[in-house]
Design goal:
The chain has 13 helices and no strands. By secondary structure, the protein is mostly helical. The longest helix has 21 residues.
């Protein structure tokens, strides 16, 4: 009688989740520089899926789709990092923005407004918004980094999506961190919270969110980036 092997199980997982790879790549596309083609993204994502299928251990009580998503996103981000498409000056501005946001929050005891962050960085509001557009991709890359050795390989964005409440199989023992992040999300402005909710929980695209909020897609991107920068300043800064 034919007996299923580990290789068969791996191949079965890969074949069953090819559409899932396409879904993740489409979700990540708005945060990836346009000069990186969809073919390059899909190639890296499929590599992540293959790696996930080969390393998956069902005895850990984690759903494969949950485990695979982290691996797939990580593979895409690794590919982007290899291209080193951000200049040193842009990385310095990214780091400076996080520090200024953290300093303003400590000084004022509240969530800083866009104009206040711009002034702290000696910029006009227009210059600051332009910077948000420029560093948006970098903030997404850095937020896909592993949180810590004790986080079971999860990233900041994994935790952000978990705030909405997943079943116990998917919780992976990080409830304290999830609750802390949920508390920080509540401190964001109403528009920032709404953008994150629609994007990460309701899975709308930025274009769809722009239509809902009657704002430009570029403005939604700015609010998205600013919200993530604030959260990173509080959680990882």
């Amino acid at each position: 009688m034919y007996q299923t092997t580990a290789y068969d199980q791996r191949d079965g997982l890969i074949k069953a989740h090819i559409d899932f790879v396409n879904f993740i790549v489409q979700r990540m596309r708005p945060q990836i520089p346009l000069f990186i083609s969809m073919d390059e993204l899909k190639s890296a994502a499929i590599y992540g899926l293959i790696e996930a299928a080969g390393r998956f251990d069902p005895d850990r009580g984690v759903l494969f789709k949950t485990y695979a998503e982290t691996r797939i996103r990580g593979a895409v981000m690794d590919e982007i990092r290899k291209m080193d498409w951000f200049s040193r000056s842009m990385r310095e501005k990214h780091t400076r923005m996080i520090k200024e946001i953290k300093r303003l929050e400590q000084q004022m005891g509240r969530d800083p407004e866009e104009k206040e962050i711009a002034e702290a960085m000696n910029m006009s509001t227009e210059e600051y918004q332009k910077l948000l557009n420029e560093i948006g991709h970098l903030s997404i890359v850095s937020l896909n980094e592993i949180l810590s050795d004790s986080s079971n390989g999860e990233t900041f964005l994994d935790q952000l999506k978990d705030i909405n409440g997943k079943n116990p199989e998917e919780a992976i023992g990080n409830q304290e961190l999830i609750q802390e992040l949920a508390d920080e999300v509540e401190k964001l402005s109403e528009k920032e919270r709404l953008v994150l909710t629609l994007f990460y929980y309701e899975e709308f695209t930025q274009r769809e969110i722009a239509e809902i909020l009657e704002l430009s897609e570029g403005r939604i991107s700015q609010l998205h980036t600013q919200a993530l920068m604030k959260l990173k300043a509080r959680m990882l800064g």
